[in-house]
Write the structure tokens for this entry.
Amino acid sequence: MATTASVHLRTTSPAAPRAHKAPRLRDLGPNWYASIMGTAIIANAGATLPYQLPGQRAVCASLWALSATALAVLLAARALHWRHHGDQARAHLLDPAVAPFYGCLSMALLAVGAGTLIVGKDLIGEGPAVAVDAVLFTAGTAVGLLMAVVVPYLMVVRHKVEASQASPVWLLPVVAPMVSAAVGPLLVPHLPAGQPREALLLACYAMFGISLLAVLLLLPLVFGRLITHGPLPLALTPALFLVLGPLGQSTTAVNQLADVAPGAIDAPYAGALGAFAVVYGVPVMGFALLWLALAASMLVRAARNGMGFAMTWWALTFPVGTCVTGAAGLARHTGLDAFAWLAAALFLGLVTAWVLAAGHTLRGLLTGRLLPAVS
């Protein structure tokens, strides 16, 4: 069973030498990238909603700028963490409760990169936006594919886990390629026509398959653990929303890919991919809503039982955001107002969750509760 210490990623070995430099960074784990993901997805989802209010795109651009700045700061802080607290960083990789969060680095890079091309271009211009997204997409995809292999490998050969420890957190490293599949289509129109576009399109479908099949292997373990061992610990309850990530992101991916397929691949495949977006996306979105209801019920139960703030609250943001973009994609391809309303309703929930998570995180940083100095 994961402990509260694991939730806060403070897996400090008693025998580890005391670090003297950057002591507040010793407990800075890879889970902090979730805050970048949660901020970037608001910008990306808000700018692509079927309904747009005056000034909405400008607010989204501001949130993208915030996520990009925070990403730069966090990358620098994590570099210092590896430099001054290498023992702790290695301990994170060997901790089954922490290692899956290394997938968040990939998703943070990809989310900010996508936002650069969606709304960041309003601030920096389309040419620089394409260049930035290309760099972040390449880096994020490489890291995501690497972690999709490294973390499961460590879980098999180094981590000592039992069925009772199965957690939605295990999905994080294998969901990262799905994010690449969902944001890669943004770059397809900027590639030369012909094989470059088709190659990226099909590469995205390959990553869609990598992630989807891996999730289908892990999800039964997660649900089986809930059925046989009961609810997750209170602080881990928000992690149930992580299951929405592959569901919403895969729906987003098939719709985004269908949008660019006509300019990247010949008939009849382009039309077939458009049909696949609806045939796949509608039932998966239905299951996502079922899981959302279950996870929300468990969250209410945990709140009534005294659940306090933990960094797991950020799990309430990015996964819900992927459902927003997935519903918006289905609204485009089906023309149904119901999906547009669903996207708007989910977006309101996303914004509420972000305000709560961001507010508590900022307070925790200011008070030193989240990153205390090592004495």
